[in-house]
Amino acid sequence: MIGAEVDKLMVNCYAVQENFHYYSREHKELQSFALILGSGVLQFTAANFMEIKRSTILSITAAATTYFVALVQFY
Q1: Of 17, 22, 47, 62, which has fewest CB within 10 angstroms of its CB?
Q2: Do 62 and 49 have their domain in common?
């Protein structure tokens, strides 16, 4: 599903890119954006400090839930 959205975005990016002069800043920005999309290296990071994956989100949720349960037991 995400791959199809990326493909659509790349097609739109190339279509918009044709509206700008080849040496313009906008054309170069769109070209860079399309290259990043096509590389398949999209990832979520926390200020480029660490990569946020599904396992990271689940670990944070598990720790918060454990803390909440312990807090409720001693209240």
Answers
A1: 47
A2: yes
Tell me: do 27 and 52 sit in the same domain: no
Residue 11 CA to residue 70 CA, distance in Å, equals: 51
Residues 6+ apart with CB under 8 A from 35: none
- Residue 66's pLDDT is what? 96
Take residue 41 and report the two structure tokens written for it.
């290296």
The whole domain housing 14 covers 1-42
Q: 0.85 cut: is pTM over it? A: no
The answer on 37 and 4 residing in a single domain is yes
Domain count, the chain: 2
Q: Are 20 and 30 in contact (CB under 8 A)?
A: yes
Query: For residue 45, what is the DSSP state?
Result: B
